[in-house]
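Quick log. Single chain, no ligands specified.
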Amino acid sequence: MYRKPKWNREGMNWPHRQYSRFIQVGDQKWHLQTMGQGPPILLLHGTGSSCHTWAGLAPVLAEQFTLVMPDLPGHGFTQTPPESGQSLMGMARLVRDLLTALDIEPTALIGHSAGAAIAAEMTLSGYVRPQAIIAINGAFQPFKGLAALLFPVAAHVLALNPLTIYAVASGAKDSRRIEKLMRSTGSEIPADMVARYRDLFTAPGHVAGMLGMMANWNLAPLVRKMAGLQVPIYLVSGAKDAAVTPASAQTLCQTVPQARFIPLPQLGHLAHEEDPNAVAAVVFSVLGPSAT
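-> predicted structure:
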């Protein structure tokens, strides 16, 4: 068992620590933060991240909404589930179970990158019935051709290799590597957010959880179902995103009638960390009085 980030060590500097709590749901132990008042919104972070990603956005949205922000299974301070719980459908089911335990029915879902895919899967599976989905640089497009076959296999091999996992965790101790990784997404994020990613990536358990998710990820079934989505999905896309290009969001709009494209001209993949106010303005314009 790989060491996960520890709440009494890495967690000591965690953003909005006062809003954190841990909850056991069946065999799964969760870390989540809840904040604010008003209609509930579920926020789902992307691969390799945690609920800390919402640190700048959350206080703004909390003025009008109750926010539910879990660390996804295997990420941050949340327990890593068996392999079946690391897939897209598996994570959707586990998040559904968490919401059931909390007795919360979210008015809207906000997902970043892979978190947007989980939000769409939950909605299409009938686990939630939101008024809208807001996808911040949502990762909905699977790899094509040979990469579609090789990427999950490679991730699976890496996830099973302790040497790789410990090598990544050891390399993450060099802050310059984390800064370079963040910049490679097309985003410039605050130093304190870079430090939190360093805290995560130096814990082998978080690295293993991230690789396990990548190894079990299959977007093709979701993409085939997306045209049947019955609620509006707003594709908020950073023009400088080097991980999920705006072109992929525009392509999705051509096949998903409920999709709407919203550009963010000067921002990258971590748009909500770069400029929380700009993303909050989009959320308020989308949800506005209709969500209250």
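Residues 5 and 11 are 7 Å apart (CA to CA).
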